[in-house]
Amino acid sequence: MKIIDAHMHFFRCASFDEDARAAGHENTVENYLKSCKENNVVMSVAMGNAPIWPSFFGGVTPRVPDLAGDFSLTEYNQPKEIAYCAGVESEALNDGNCQQTALEFEQLLKTPQCVGIKIYTGYCQVYAYDPVHFPLYELAEAYDVPVVFHTGDTAGGHGMLKYAHPLTIDEVASQFPRVKFVIAHCGNPWILDAMEVVAKNPNVYVDLSGLLEGKFDGAQFYEKHRDYFRYLRMWLDYVERYDKVLYGTDWPLINIRSYIDTMKLVVPAEHHQEFFYDNALRVYSKLQALLPQEEETK
């Protein structure tokens, strides 16, 4: 079965390097591509973490992947198997620069590899429904790309959870019904709330990235944390919209094989094809053009 990782990070920093070692690998291009090949991961979507150029339009500059060298807008120098969502530094947005910021992001969305926008709610203390984000939502609608929100727990103590609660996405989804929104990490630990937002809003999806960390035997880990996984499965089954649930890892925090094995136990086997592959292609509409030729003719 071919797999699309709809949420990972392609970024060199000390904390990610440490997390990668804890997961039994290295935070390097070579290691990631090797793991993808071994596990039939044919495409990944990186959440942009690194700021790039000085502002062209007087807005806030986007954040991009950068593990493969200095990022270039004119000549994409990241691996061809990696698309990305341009990250937003929300705390730098204001009424005076949000329109110009959308122009900065539009330069990236005009390129094939930029397939969405990522907003770090929680890490940035700005609500998803703050009007400073609205020009970006309008841009996402114009280019038919999703907006992904960090939701739920934040790594370390510097985030503010009230900004990362999945219920805050309900207001945005209602105001922008033609934009696809993704609740990353299924709002963990507010899984019920996240799934209610998915059930209510046709334009809202979840990914199951970042629910675990490290390297482990998938079956043993599942058994050890059976109550947690039963709770997650209960709400996935209750809402019964597996067409709106995406596979993602949050690599390099996780060992890819461990995560795949665990998620195969969480999601019913009859939904594996849509969960691991098909749903990502529907949400990230630009991915199809980036797949290898044999994928395009599947």
Description of the molecule:
This protein has 298 residues and is α/β, with parallel strands linked by helices. Helix content is 36%, strand content 14%. The chain has eleven helices and ten strands. The longest helix is centred in the C-terminal third of the chain and has 14 residues. It is globular. The two termini are 12 Å apart. The model has no long low-confidence stretch (mean pLDDT 94).
Give a quick summary of the entry.
The chain has eleven helices and ten strands. With 298 residues, it is an alpha/beta fold.
Q: What is the end-to-end distance? A: 12 Å
Shape label: globular
Helix percentage range: 25-40%
The number of E-state strands comes to 10
What structural class do the secondary elements suggest?
alpha/beta
- Kindly report the spatial arrangement of strands forming the biggest sheet: 1-2-5-6-7-8-9-10
Order of secondary-structure elements: EHHEEEEHEHEHEHEHHEHHH
Proportion of strand residues: 5-15%
Main sheet: strands, sense, barrel: 8 strands, parallel
The overall pLDDT average reads 94
Alpha carbon gyration radius: 18 Å
Separate helix tally: 11
Low-confidence parts lasting 5 or more residues at pLDDT below 50? none
